[in-house]
Amino acid sequence: MAIKFEQALLDYPQQRAGAARHPQSVDQSDRRVPINLRQSGPTPVEMLISTRVRKSPYWHLSVESGCWRATVYNRMYHPRGYVHPEEGGAMVEYDSLIHDVTLWNVAVERQIQVKGLEAEAFVNYVITRDATKIKPMRGKYVILCNEEGGILNDPVLLRIAEDEFWFSLSDSDLELWLRGVNTGKRFDVSIAEIDVAPVQIQGPKSEALMVDLFGDAVSELPYYGLMAGQVAGHDVIVSQTGFTGEKGYEIYLRDATLHAEDLWYTVLRTGEKHNLRVIAPAHHRRIAAGILSWGQDVDQETMPFQCNLAYQVPRNKDADYIGKQRLEEVRAQMEAGNPPFRQIMVGLRFDGAPVTDYANDFWLISQAAGEEPVGYVTSPWYSPELETNIALGYVPYELRDIGTRLTVKLPPEYVGADGNLEVDAEVVNVPFRPSVNPNARERAKAKGIDFAD
């Protein structure tokens, strides 16, 4: 299978040629490797399917369900489109998510198991939050940082037992980091990827579908709670989690390479009466919820204080962890009004035609039309509920305040009716709209504190 983009580039205006050759002037001098801000547009290549990139146990099932394009995530092919553009594309998939229920192939969330007598102590050393407060059969959204405070990964961490944790990864190879850490520390643990592959069940009808699969007990599952169950006679772990602000669950199938078809087809059959649709991860909804995408919104040179993840740095964790000293220094600098970075993440509303697909580039932000860029958009999309384009992006620290007026330079396909490439934008609060389950940052804020246990 190959996805072709030749015509897309041929159709792209020649005015992009100069931007492709010359870097932009956004100050990224605090980074070792600046974000590539050249506006080069669609990519005129085929996506090669080879054995250097893995096919997950659900890959052929996604193709069977209509997957027509994919990206690479954790060195696996990741479905990113089922409904074709001429049939409404990603916005049709979005409608199913917010009105009915959807099935996602998210096997790219590779599961790294840490197991052994010192599993808790090891996990507590590599994450910023307090692992000792995670009870068996519960989970948490966590981050792992390097010694400089940069975010290496932001997985969902599942505690399966007293002596067993699973890191459900975002898009960076955490197993090698964990093994490297333990080469020197020698905790009594084993560290390895396991044959467990998740799917997500997301949308307002997800609970009804899950009750059909697992019985009424699933209705008692708390947010980030876990339960053991079976699908088609095969063992699974269920969590109430997901990459949206909608009600949703994940089903982690054990021995997934053997039983993927049984789980997939069972969910499809069970979901028929709930109007289930197989879709790609809904980035338009996760943006509205303020959920970040590693590699797109954050990376190993991004500190949690730059990207709405400051709540992941606790004030009451006595135990040492990787990056603790640097993160506490940065917090002190922040409180003194002297942040050690130039750019900070904000939420944006902006004009122009509705953004209904993934951006090819990090779009540029200026203080006013015609001026040099000062920041960049990382995740833009259109929100039907808010009837406006929304985005996450980075701007200079002094432009972070709610209500700040800015300009976003759009690619030609999203230019508004007036024909202007540069459109008005405004800094707004994140999240953009409420989620069914408020995240830990929102819950901490409601308690009047700036960190989550």
Q: Quick check: average pLDDT?
A: 94
Weakly predicted, low-confidence segments? 1-10
Percent helix, as a range, is 10-25%
Number of strands: 21
Radius of gyration: 22 Å
Give the structural class.
alpha+beta
DSSP strand (E) fraction?
A: 25-35%
Cα(first) to Cα(last) distance is 45 Å
- Number of separate helices: 11
Overall shape: it is globular
For the largest beta-sheet, the strand count, sense and barrel status come to: 6 strands, mixed
Strand order of the largest sheet: 12-13-14-11-3-15
SSE layout and pairing:
Elements: H1 6-11, H2 16-21, H3 59-64, E1 69-73, E2 76-81, H4 89-99, E3 101-105, E4 111-115, H5 119-126, E5 138-141, E6 144-145, E7 151-153, E8 156-161, E9 164-168, H6 174-185, E10 190-193, E11 196-202, H7 206-214, E12 226-231, E13 234-239, E14 248-254, H8 256-271, E15 276-278, H9 283-288, H10 324-335, E16 343-350, E17 364-366, E18 373-383, E19 388-396, E20 405-409, E21 422-428, H11 440-446
Parallel strand pairs: 3-15
Antiparallel strand pairs: 1-2, 3-11, 4-9, 4-10, 5-8, 6-7, 8-9, 11-14, 12-13, 13-14, 16-19, 16-21, 17-18, 17-20, 18-19, 20-21
